[in-house]
Design brief:
Structural class: mainly alpha
Number of helices: 3
Oligomer: single chain
Largest sheet: 2 strands, antiparallel
Mean pLDDT: 81
Strand content: 5-15%
Order of helices and strands: EEHHH
CATH architecture: Orthogonal Bundle
CATH superfamily: Cytochrome c-like domain
Number of strands: 2
Shape: globular
Low-confidence stretches: none
Strand order of the largest sheet: 1-2
Length: 86
């Protein structure tokens, strides 16, 4: 599980939406364990998410950016630098 939380939120192509760690836990429960999903912000879901997130503590966050977003990001950073920002 080390590093798992550092990949979220992430875009889930099958669902065509952004998925956070809690959603991924529930997806795994329903698809791979044939279990019912935990209720949103339930003690069980929050505890499991905290446990998984703790395994990624101190690791860099993985950011995957598609080409249009990269172009936009580069333009935004260039504007910040021109304005005297970091």
């Amino acid at each position: 599980m080390r590093g798992a939380a550092a990949r979220y939120p992430a875009f889930d192509a099958a669902r065509k939406r952004l998925v956070d760690l809690e959603a991924r836990i529930n997806i795994c429960r329903t698809q791979h364990q044939n279990a019912t999903p935990f209720a949103f912000e339930s003690k069980e879901l929050l505890a499991l998410a905290a446990f998984v997130a703790n395994q990624s503590r101190g690791l860099p966050i993985h950011v995957a950016v598609d080409e249009p977003a990269k172009t936009s990001l580069v333009a935004d950073v260039s504007c910040l630098r021109a304005a005297g920002g970091s």
